Amino acid sequence: MRWNNPGSAGVLPANRFLPPPRFAWPDDQRCAAMLCFDVDGETTALSEDPALARRRTLMSQCEYGPRVGVPRLLGLLAHLKVPATFFVPGYIAENHPRMIEAIVAGGHEIGLHGYLHEKLANLSEVEEEAILVRSIEILTRLTGTRPVGYRAPWFEINPWTPELLARHEIHYCASEMGDDVPYFHDNGLVEIPGQWMLEDWEQFAFNADPAWGFVPENCEKVFDLWWREFDAMHDMGCCFVLTLHPWLSGRPSRVRLLEDLVNAMREKGHVWFVRGNEIATYVRSHPQARREIDFDAENSNLIKT
Ligand SMILES: [Zn+2]
Fold it and tell me: How many contiguous H segments (helices) and E segments (strands) does the chain have?
């Protein structure tokens, strides 16, 4: 079956608005594509209420991520030969060490995602730092490499979070939504921004009680949503950051959706499929790669590293 793929027709409308690319990507790449898997697993429920541990059906839905979704998605990534970035809460890493081994063996990056997927807004700076230190220790021990990337649980960071991350030698944060290309925080920390439109929770999450999500959407509609955004981001030289949860996107039809999306992106050409740590390294060594279009950024703090 062919998806409805408006970008592959190859015919641009006359007079299409095509501004210069927002970012100078390496070689002749036109845009970057960072595939992120947030392996929240059991913490999806436990961070809401530890008493939910008794709810076997709910917990089994969460466990599906690390137990079934991740192995299947690792298989797909190997099949497609694309690298990805897995953000894993410390609790999930401790409870699924062989999953961590398999992600590392697949050549993927593992980044920080809290310990029990804690909402940062509920934490003091001291509590947040303690969780960060504990999570760094766990991932370092289980992967053999110190993590350099961070995605805040629920995507939400505190005003002090960039400073905490820099203090603990984290190279990049992938939590804000303030642009569609990477930027620098005031302290030189790289931000690789995402956006809710390119998230699977809004499309696929559903649980009866506690009430999560909305209506599980048809994959064809979701392909169309993500493809149109990718296609335009490609034309405008942006950084396509797709965030998927294995308990949602590890389900069979959605694995197929991801396969078709990556293949369509490849067909478009000049796409840099890349891990977060490589984007951060590139951005730090090429601070001029960003084309500023923000009227308020005259005295921008872009170049502080
Ligand atoms: Zn998460």
Answer: 12, 11
R_g of the chain, CA atoms, integer Å: 19
88 φ, ψ to 5°? -130, 120
- Interval between CA 293 and ligand 1 midpoint (Å): 31
The runs of H, that is alpha helices, within the chain are 43-46, 56-64, 70-80, 90-95, 97-105, 125-143, 161-167, 201-204, 219-235, 246-249, 252-268, 276-285
**Cα 303 to middle of ligand 1, angstroms:** 30
Residues 211-261 pLDDT 10s = 999 899 999 999 999 999 999 999 999 999 999 999 999 999 999 999 999
- 188 CA from centroid of ligand 1 (Å): 25
98: three-class secondary structure by DSSP: helix
Structure confidence by residue, pLDDT tens digits, 169-215? 999 999 999 999 999 999 999 999 999 999 999 999 999 999 999 89
Ligand 1: distance of its center to the CA of 151 in Å?
Answer: 8
Q: How far is the CA of 231 from the centre of ligand 1 (A)?
A: 26
